[in-house]
Amino acid sequence: MKSSKTNENFWLYGKHTCMSALKNKNRRCIELLVTENFYREHEKEIRQCANSKGIKVRLVENKILNDVLSKGANHQGIALNVAPILYNLSIEEVAESSNDSSTIVILDQVTDTHNIGSILRTSACFNVDALVLPHNHSPSENASIAKAASGALDIVPLIYVTNIVKTMQYLKKVGYWCYGLDCNAKENIDEIKSFEKKRVIIFGSEEKGMRSVQSAFTIFFAFAVLIGMSSSYIFIIYTAESIARAFFITSIMFGSMALYGNITKRDLTTSVVNLFLGSGPLDFAISFISVIVFTLKTASDAQRIKDVYYKYNDGSEAATTKLAILGATSLYLDFINIFLSLLRLLNNRD
After folding, report:
1. Amino acid 344: pLDDT
2. What single-letter DSSP state applies at residue 184?
3. How many C-beta atoms surround the C-beta of residue 127 within 10 A?
4. Is 107 helix (H, G, I), strand (E, B) or coil?
5. How far apart are the first and last CA of the chain?
6. Are 300 and 269 in contact (CB under 8 A)?
7. What are the residue ranges in the chain where pLDDT is below 50?
8. Hey, is 233 helix, strand or coil?
């Protein structure tokens, strides 16, 4: 039950994906290519990261990056050749090192690399201990997953196992509760009174995208309920006035940026920074930065959702519904992140 599935090297691209890989002590980096413009803007950070990995920075033209990477790759002027992450970590070690509150996500035959990357990104936001995939019927770690994860691939351990059922049986044996999400289940997720502190969340196969419209609804509401439950602590440590004020301000900011993302013609994808930092003495600064980051991300996601809709919608009701749900999930997470960051800034506690 080790994390690595393949030993083949591959290219990462994009600023946050590459910089996150360079900062990961478990990642073996082989070759770093950057354009002169990118190097000039980020020289200090690039030199520090490259020196820590013992690799040289190679300045190249955009044409070289376009030749090395897949067609249409949004590389932003940087590409990094890497080996798969060697966490040398098993699911048993994850379970043994976990604390009283632990979440592990299992993806059973999920094959869409963008879905896997998005789930990794969300998992990083909510401190998921590991993302588990079956060794068979799931993609190996690759550039598509890394780009969609936007740096989270080097934060959340990606563990491949040979048998999902045996993995679940082991986790149940050591104190985890397993929650499987399926549209045909007899019990709705909102009927569960409370989730155990040690939990495993299992998502089934999409089968060529989403398995069905019902599956898309199930996943969306599952995330919504889980996030709601995990955020319920705010009613204990913050005053009602602070919560209401943060919600009101968030609604205005969110609505404004979502509208801007829909009407602007400027490409906003390169303006968004993904931040995964823990709390501590700099909590105020982190919260302030998080508000800016996720506010900008709201505009970027709104623009991306509109572009994806016009590009992939075939006019059918099923396609329209699925695209709407996927877009709603992204915007919902942006709203929650802005709200929680603002709440920490206001900081009026009971």
Report:
1. 77
2. T
3. 14
4. strand
5. 45
6. yes
7. 1-2, 208-211, 214, 270-280, 348-350
8. coil
